[in-house]
Amino acid sequence: MDEVKYPVLTEKSIRLLERNQYTFNVDSQLNKTKMKIWIEHFFDVKVIAMNSYRLPEKGGKRGSMIGHPIRCKRMIITLKPSDSIPLFSEQ
């Protein structure tokens, strides 16, 4: 799926891994329903909850042009306690 860009590894996302929550940067057009179906199908896990938010805009200037880059969306996915995503496993 091209809409899921990559997993996020920040201090906050690493802290959330302890609570079985995984963070992904996704396309700004992707909604929670599509993301839930994709995660459950691709990783064979059960999603309990999902939170999403847009990253703040950062203004920029390139020459005489002033504008904002395209923002992306970040999703935090909570899984069942018995499930995990192998991409993030600590084995």
Automatic annotation (TrEMBL):
Gene Ontology biological process terms in this record: translation
Keyword Plastid tagged: yes
Primary subcellular site in the record, as a coarse category: plastid
GO cellular component, one term: chloroplast
Keywords: Chloroplast, Plastid, Ribonucleoprotein, Ribosomal protein, RNA-binding, rRNA-binding
Compartments (UniProt record): Plastid, Chloroplast
Gene Ontology MF terms: rRNA binding; structural constituent of ribosome
Pfam families hit by this protein: Ribosomal_L23
PROSITE patterns reported for this sequence: RIBOSOMAL_L23
InterPro entries to which the protein is assigned, alphabetical: Nucleotide-bd_a/b_plait_sf, Ribosomal_uL23-like, Ribosomal_uL23/eL15/eS24_sf, Ribosomal_uL23_CS
SUPFAM superfamilies in UniProt: Ribosomal proteins S24e, L23 and L15e
Subunit structure comment from the entry: Part of the 50S ribosomal subunit.
PANTHER family named in the record: 60S RIBOSOMAL PROTEIN L23A (PTHR11620)
Cited function: Binds to 23S rRNA.
Protein name: Large ribosomal subunit protein uL23c
